[in-house]
Specification:
about 160 residues; alpha+beta; four-stranded antiparallel β-sheet; 4 strands
């Protein structure tokens, strides 16, 4: 280091100025090339990543809104008739007759089916749950004296 200082001081003032300006230019270039350019590239990549994330979020929001709208429209169409009327209609469509029927508020019913064909009961339960949007809260199935017939007690609810 001492030899470099001696060499620098032996130069003329004009050359010393030129060497100082050159050294400053090299430092500025190194800072630019090693710090500034990578930071700018990283910043641009982050902006692009944020833009993609915002687009995906907007897409998810739009799809969520469509799904909610679809669910609400399905609920409104499902609730256009009373629960008791829907239960009576669906039971008669499957050839089942009600032995006892008791409404539980406006959203539930208790049903007793005597000597009901099991295949018809299962088809009716599938329709009630999957197509009508009702929920079976309690169910008990007991065998009947007749083959293929059962005694069924259940509670149905609809939100």
């Amino acid at each position: 280091m001492e030899s470099f200082k001696d060499w620098y001081l032996q130069q003329s003032p004009r050359e010393q100025l030129l060497l100082g300006v050159g050294a400053i230019a090299v430092v500025i270039f190194l800072v630019y090339a090693m710090v500034w350019v990578p930071l700018v590239k990283s910043h641009k990549a982050q902006l692009q990543s944020n833009k993609i994330a915002l687009e995906q979020r907007e897409t998810v929001r739009n799809l969520g809104g469509k799904i909610l709208g679809f669910q609400q429209s399905n609920k409104s169409t499902n609730h256009s008739t009373s629960l008791t009327q829907e239960v009576h209609n669906s039971l008669s469509a499957h050839g089942l007759s009600i032995d006892k029927f008791q409404p539980i508020g406006s959203t539930g019913v208790r049903i007793h089916l005597a000597k009901a064909p099991l295949s018809s009961v299962f088809a009716w339960l599938d329709e009630v749950e999957n197509k009508k949007g009702m929920q079976i809260k309690d169910i008990s199935v007991a065998s009947s004296d007749d083959i293929g017939q059962a005694l069924v007690n259940l509670r149905l609810y609809r939100d």
